[in-house]
Amino acid sequence: MMVQIGLIALLVVAYVIVSRILKSSVTLLGQKKYANEVRITYVSKMLNLGFTAIFVLLVCLVLGIGYGQLAIFFSSVFAVVGVALFAQWSILSNITASLIIFFGFPYRVGDWVKVVDKDDEILGQITEISSFHVIIHRLSGDVVTYPNSLILQKAVVRFENRESALAMSQFVAHDALPNKGEEQGSAP
Fold first, then answer.
1. How buried is 62 (Cβ within 10 angstroms: 0-12 exposed, 13-18 middle, 19+ buried)?
2. pLDDT, tens digit, for every residue of 143-179?
3. In sequence order, what are the beta bridge partners of 144?
4. Are strands 122-129 and 133-138 parallel, antiparallel or unpaired?
């Protein structure tokens, strides 16, 4: 009995320490990537939720709850959650994509990008990266809300500035843009 109490106390101390390290690491990474404060808090809470589930599982094992009982409990929970999320599969995929974007997306708020999509030209400036979508302001002034799960599946081209993006737009009359040959005085 004393061994169980000691192990649980050790788990609680480890949980508190690792939770603080996890939160500070996510905060530092978010600040390094210039992420929105709300987004940093969201990702931190999602990771903390997963870590808390692992902590509860370890405490149950220390208390002597059998693997069979835990398996039945977790399979029941996953069945209910699975049925609830099956109808909303896109929400689950966007949340997962949101975590991937936070840690590995090479584009930031303020970048000029073009999402390579055969149906429509999505070219503009990223103004927000949220939990479910990326908001892109087009050159025309329109606002595009692009789902996180789709932006990970498409090729994205990053431009250095607005002028570079404007030069690559298929909807802008390229005759209006200055030609390098004309600037130097050579004939077309």
1. middle
2. 999 888 888 888 888 888 888 778 877 665 444 444 4
3. 136
4. antiparallel
Using the Cα atoms of residue 33, residue 39, residue 41 and residue 47 in order, give the sign of their dihedral. negative
Buried b or exposed e, range 138-173, using 16+ CB within 10 angstroms: bbeeeeeebebbbbbeeebeebeeeeebbeebeeee
- CA gap 92, 119 in Å, rounded: 25
What backbone torsions phi and psi does residue 133 show, to the nearest 5 degrees?
-155, 165
| Start-to-end C-alpha separation, the chain | 89
Which residue, among 165, 173, 30, has the nearest Cα to 102 in the 3D structure? 30
For residue 10, what are its two tokens? 């050790």
**Pairing between strand 122-129 and 112-115?**
antiparallel
pLDDT digits (tens, 9 = 90+) for 25-81: 999 988 888 777 888 888 888 889 889 988 988 888 888 887 788 788 878 887 877
Integer Cα distance of 59 and 117 in angstroms = 49
| Spatial distance between the Cα atoms of 35 and 41, rounded to a whole number of angstroms | 10
Q: Take residue 132 and report the two structure tokens written for it.
A: 């479910």
Tell me the HSE value of 139 on the side-chain side, using a 13 A CA sphere.
18
Instruction: Provide the pairing of β-strand 112-115 with 156-159.
Output: antiparallel
